[in-house]
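This follows on from our talk about sequence and fold. I would like you to pick a protein and set down its sequence and fold. Go ahead and set the record down below:
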Amino acid sequence: MVWFELVLAGLLEVIWAAGLKYSQGFTRLLPSVITVAGMIASFYFLAQAVRTLPLGTAYAVWTGIGAVGSVLFGMAVFGDPITPVRIIFLLCIVIGIAGLKFTA
């Protein structure tokens, strides 16, 4: 269950990171509310996960999921560049996340 909470926290991080773009610097109300709610929920589930998991592992996995998810979202929705080098580095992050999970 703790890993589910951590993955959920990471996915919520993607939501609030994307929300930052949509909120246009917190000048649009609904995207701003969604962004702040995503932040609170993400931090809540991260806090639950660190009650059981080592802090360094949980934080690295949380930020890794957020980073990879945000990059993929940017590629899919905002037209961010998709290059072989970017994909290779994303895979490096995913391998690092998996390694931390399996050694925790």
About this structure: The helical segments are 2-23, 29-49, 55-77, 84-103. The chain is about 85% helix and 0% strand.
